[in-house]
Write a structure and sequence with these properties.
This protein has a domain of 169 residues: NADH Oxidase (3-Layer(aba) Sandwich), CATH 3.40.109. Helix 2 runs antiparallel to helix 5. The strands form 2 sheets. It has a 4-stranded antiparallel beta sheet, with helices on both faces. By secondary structure, it is an alpha+beta fold. The structure holds flavin mononucleotide. Flavin mononucleotide binds next to strand 3.
């Protein structure tokens, strides 16, 4: 985020400027990594920091429904990749005919090339009997687990560790392969490891699959579809036009000037 964005008023509770910049830097330079994994392990101390960040995510009723399955075994990962390949060949048939060739060219996983895989699960029974925040909206436990994934993803970016989310699976054989019981949902399957670089833009943008939408078109006023907030929209689009940082390498990141 450009430096001018930080000129806005600072509240007494906000971070110092450098710390604020670091937070936005992690957000804007985080990437979904598939093809840029390099060999080498992740130090357990670093992994523990990332898992601690995940475990400090918000969760409905503070239920902390997550578990983290660390998968290092090469043979197991090959089996997971086989599941991915089977699911991908099914998914491609649902893609519009004229986009299937492009879909087939996309790199959509780094299961075997990354240092390790992590399956983040949601135990839907963890806080049974005390459904604070889930009585009317039972899916909130799944949303909470996604918050843990995002914490992990952002902390990993700050550590120079790449993360790629793979969702192209039939969850039934995946659960069987990982011994996940029926009441537990595999929310995210992540490829995690050292990388050569973090691409400046999402792969799916670079490869022409889909571009980032203009933020102003997504902001509504008061009710769904409500027009208004012209000044906010113009500020938001101005920031997008100034651009998120151009590029960043694994050890560092783009400079904010
Ligand atoms: C719930 C979820 C599932 C995803 N599943 C996949 C996947 O199966 N394969 C893949 O290559 N990327 C997957 N992604 C990553 C997105 O493609 C990626 O976030 C998006 O293209 C934007 O790129 P960026 O994360 O680098 O900003 C997934 C992301 C999310 C949030």
């Amino acid at each position: 985020m450009p430096a001018e964005s930080f000129a806005a008023e600072k509240s007494s509770c906000s971070f110092e400027r450098e710390a604020r910049e670091a937070v936005y830097r992690a957000i804007h330079t985080r990437r979904d990594v598939r093809g840029h994994f390099i060999s080498g392990p992740i130090d357990d101390t670093v992994l523990a920091r990332l898992l601690t960040a995940a475990h400090h995510a918000p969760s409905v009723g503070h239920m902390q429904p997550w578990n983290f399955i660390v998968i290092r075994d090469a043979e197991r990962r090959e089996k997971v990749r086989d599941l991915f390949l089977a699911a991908r060949s099914e998914e491609v048939s649902a893609v519009a005919a004229e986009r299937q060739a492009l879909y087939r060219k996309l790199r959509l996983e780094g299961i075997c090339e990354s240092a390790l895989n992590l399956c983040v699960t949601c135990d839907r029974t963890r806080a049974e009997g005390s459904p604070l925040g889930r009585w009317h909206n039972p899916e909130m436990d799944l949303y909470s687990t996604v918050c843990a994934v995002q914490n992990f993803w952002l902390a990993a970016r700050a550590e120079g560790i790449g993360v790629g989310w793979v969702s192209i699976f039939d969850s039934v054989p995946l659960k069987k392969l990982l011994g996940i019981p029926g009441h537990v949902v595999p929310v995210a399957y992540l490829c995690v490891g050292p990388v050569s670089e973090f691409a400046p833009r999402p792969d799916l943008e670079t490869k022409g699959w889909r571009q980032r939408l203009p933020l102003s078109g997504l902001i509504m006023s008061e009710t769904f579809g409500g027009d208004g907030e012209a000044s906010l929209k113009s500020l938001a689009d101005g920031m997008a036009a100034e651009g998120a940082p151009a590029s960043s390498h694994a050890g560092g990141g783009a400079e904010y000037s």
